[in-house]
Amino acid sequence: MTDEPARWSQATVYPDMWVDPDSDPRNSDGVSPDGELATLQDFLTGYRLTLRMKCEGLDPEQLARRSVPPSTMSLLGLIRHLAEVERDWQNWITDGEPLPQLYGGPDGDFDGAVAEQAVVDAAYADLEREQAATDAALAEHPDLSERLGKDGFAVRELLVHRIEEYARHCGHADLLRECVDGRVGQ
């Protein structure tokens, strides 16, 4: 007997996929977006959807389940972390006073990721709110070369960094989900 879940995929067309292509909300009909800004936004949207898909169908205990000690990483912690990161990017855009952290000091995003439905619901609400706020702030600056905030980051750099952050954490989510219930796929 082992505590390790058997590997499985919901996909039937390609066994290395998360879902079949016709059921994948990340797939769009037609050609890819025109222009650099639209392309960057499309990649960001895809990674955001991937993170949500990796968390779908799990209960609070599964979402809060930690990876390998001493790591505090969990799927719920990733949701909270990305909400915190989105808020921090808003601080990069502004010249004003920084917004306070959502979850307190270092590792508050992961340490506070406990197996309670209210914490899960709040994490998803925080993520949606902070994504919308960052998106709205950046929408006011469609010129990718424009420099923003006290440190003068280019809009392009902020968008690419957001994509990188989500992509990296989607890789973590792949492994975390596989540890929870054995489900695999890109």
Automatic annotation (TrEMBL):
Segments of this protein annotated with the region Disordered: 1-35
Pfam families: MST
Gene3D superfamilies: dinb family like domain
Name used for this protein in its record: DinB family protein
Species this chain originates from: Streptomyces cyaneochromogenes
The organism's taxonomic lineage, starting at the top: Bacteria, Bacillati, Actinomycetota, Actinomycetes, Kitasatosporales
